[in-house]
Amino acid sequence: MRRWIGFALAIAASAQTFEVASVKIAPVTPGDLYYINLGTLKNDTLTFGNASLADCIRFAYGLTSDAQLSGPDWMKSKVDRYDIVAKTAPNTPREQVLKMLQALLAERFKLAMHAEKREMSYYALVISKSGSKLRPAGDTPATLPPGAQGQLRILSNSMPMQTVATLLSRYMRAFVVDRTGLEGRFEVRLVWTPDDRPVADDERGPSVFTAVQEQLGLKLEPRKGPMDVFVVDHAEKTPVEN
After folding, report:
1. For residue 223, what are the β-bridge partners?
2. 206 and which of 45, 163, 183, 210 could share a cystine (Cβ 3.0–4.6 Å)?
3. From CA 93, how far away is CA 91, in angstroms rounded?
């Protein structure tokens, strides 16, 4: 049986709404750079800048990869982009903010979805046998690991594992799922060289698999099994006015 996640259910699941919420079509000009947009929740304010609707849905429902979201192509395009700024009450828990965002997307984009199980291949991000090397989040900006020669990097002094999995999914163009069981936020310093990057052998850094294990004390394990995929049944390109 389908599990319907229509806008009425999303709104009903939220006990409160944003104090103020602005949803606007972002101005896009030819040649604009495309950035990985994860959204930010800081100082009681949720912000998306130049984000696709798919970016917003992934954030709202904790999805790490495009593979978990099925719908019209325009939702992931570089043309149809949005700016969202939403203010919460002080100290609103993150879980509640995500429910509020689900309701906001349902209301403004007339978003209706259902979830279904599909057999999928993915990488599970787990703790390696030698144990995690991650340090708790701190105030000092993260720096590069000593001697790292990689060309792609994830650097943060405060990042949850869900975000690490999301970034790895984007960079690797693969489906990565957090299975570490690590709660809270951590300092993340990860640098690697993609296999397809033309780099001289003496300048090549570790692969992403080696870097994750050596630098973070984690491991990317290939797995296959049933996973939730969210299917968009309806969504409007033009959001309801503020």
Report:
1. 122
2. 210
3. 6
Q: In the prediction, which pLDDT does 11 show? A: 45
- pLDDT digit string, tens, across residues 209-229: 999 999 999 999 999 999 999
Which of 205, 227, 238 is CA-nearest to residue 70?
227
pLDDT of residue 170: 86
Q: How many CA atoms lie within 13 A of 50 on its CB side?
A: 11
Q: How many CB atoms are located within 10 Å of the residue 73 CB?
A: 8
Q: Which of these, 220, 211, 209, lies nearest to 150 by C-alpha position?
A: 211
Which of 84, 83, 78, 82 minimizes the C-alpha distance to 30? Answer: 78
User: Any idea of the CA torsion for 117, 54, 208, 214, to the nearest 10 degrees?
Assistant: -80
Contact, 205 vs 191, CB < 8 A?
yes
**Tens digits of per-residue pLDDT, 27-39?**
865 555 545 567 8
Gap between the Cα atoms of 142 and 150, Å rounded: 16
Neighbours of 132 (CB within 10 A): 15
